[in-house]
Fold:
Amino acid sequence: MPFSPPALDSFDLAILAILQRDNTTPQRLIGEAVNLSAPAVQRRIKRMEQTGVIAGNVAVVEPAAVGHPITIFVEVELESERAEMIDAAKRQFSAAPEVQQCYYVTGEADFILVITVADMAAYEALTRKLFFDSNNVRKFRTFVAMDRVKVGLTVPLPG
Amino acid sequence: MPFSPPALDSFDLAILAILQRDNTTPQRLIGEAVNLSAPAVQRRIKRMEQTGVIAGNVAVVEPAAVGHPITIFVEVELESERAEMIDAAKRQFSAAPEVQQCYYVTGEADFILVITVADMAAYEALTRKLFFDSNNVRKFRTFVAMDRVKVGLTVPLPG
DNA sequence: CCTCGAAATGCAAGTTTGTTTCGTCAGGAT
DNA sequence: ATCCTGACGAAACAAACTTGCATTTCGAGG
Structure:
């Protein structure tokens, strides 16, 4: 499903650009930055939250600070690409808390996962649970992150 | 650099679990949930922000809503792995707004990028800028996301 | 050209939330 | 035993958010 919501004007985009960087910015300051009153800013934010343009408001936690210093990418290739199997894999991968992100992709792999773990032993245990116990994984390739050069969910905004 | 900050107790972890899901939750409610007064919650949050446990507070924007409906993964392999070249690549990749995430990894690739673009033409243009114009990219593999099954920066918390 | 209605705005009041202050208490070191 | 440090809760305070309302803007008809 694409996106039905009404088009965003330059005010909305300017507001998003700010919230995307720091959503604790007071509406008064946002208003000054975009030349709008605080209530106007607030109405636009609420609308964008309701229509799903703003998917959430979250604190970003440093994984290393909570015992998950290792980030790993995994390319997963399934045995069967039947829709039923795909869906089962989606559900299983999503259910694992260590799986931070899960994408179903085209190309030489079927899924790409972003995983955070405490150590390689934890990763090894996770692969056993996710890939070996399930009999639908043909193979997977592991990439261990040595440097999280740039991390975020920031989307470039027009204007 | 690993992480020096003081250990987090179960209160901190409980607070993080909430903020990670919704950082607009009133401190009063957080206090009720974790059995602490609002000021206590606020002191702990401030401390975690200052020590970097909380890396940021952001609104998550739906890419499709702002004209970037396509998410792409790219594995990049460099010609030279001299430290100087690695650093140059890090800087160049990070500088591109379309590059949402950039990781320097071990294994059969050197970098993994997560990119959001409006259409394949935009991606093609980006590859030209990032990979071809730079003479240090040996090859790259592209994976187009058909389904963003699970997206986020949520870290699993002990306890 | 004018009128009408829908939608968005700013202002101001009212409410909720966040922040600071202050006094108290527990644990550790002197 | 005493002091010092760090953390807590209660209450006062400041700031931010939210709502109601009159006004403005803009476009579609008449």
User: Anything to note?
Assistant: Residues 26-28, 38-39, 42 of chain B lie near DNA strand C (CB under 10 Å from a C1'). Chain B has a mean pLDDT of 95. Chain B touches chain A through 71 residues (CB under 8 Å).
